[in-house]
Amino acid sequence: MYSGVNASRDEPVFIITGGQGQCKTTFLHLVLGLTVGLHVRVRGVLAPGHMRDGRRSGFTLVDLATGGHEELSSIDPDPRCEVHGRFYFRPEGLAFGRRALAPPDPYRTDLMVVDEVGRFELQGAVWAEQLDRLLTHPHPPMVWTVRRRLLDTVVERWKITNPVVVDVGTASVMATAGDVMDAVWEWREAQAISTTPTVPFMDYIAGDPPLLAGAAAGAPPAILRRCYGPEG
């Protein structure tokens, strides 16, 4: 899937895609659980959805850098909110997400995640401005989620020259995790700032590192090439 970073350092954008309700966020969470270990620094947002009477009723945001969360949108009317489609977007949730999606320090971030990019962004709303800024600044590898029917439009709108499309209908979580980790490894090598001694692989598998844990404060962390077995 991932063919390497090109000579211009155009870092890949992994796009996890599928139909509506096809568990793109779940797939992304599983990938992050395998790739974002103790020493990988991640920024961005996850947006798990909520259901009511069999229909999508809203979304919560999770800031991957801090673990904080905030309600983003709901189908319940609220005069304070921005209205997009049938959803009312809370000002607190929008401000929370925009802070989490600010252009990262490329020397302190290994992976940027945006869940999800959809029709509201294509209309210039919600995260559209943040995506424009992310792609005009030096950035690490990124992972986006996008509905399949919007995929080509999103790639064209943001002029993504190095997309890696991952369709949840056919893709392997393990293989995707390995490809993302390879991209992160190459990004960190390019930064030439990794000074922490390599942690033995057995130290990783001896215990269960916290899911999505950030790097400890201090010296830049080392990153290991990870080995993945077949999915069980």
UniProtKB/TrEMBL annotation:
InterPro entries: Nuc-triphosphatase_THEP1 (IPR004948), P-loop_NTPase (IPR027417). Transmembrane segments: none annotated. GO terms for molecular function: kinase activity. Keywords: Kinase, Transferase. Pfam families: NTPase_1. This is Nucleotide kinase. It comes from Methanoculleus oceani.
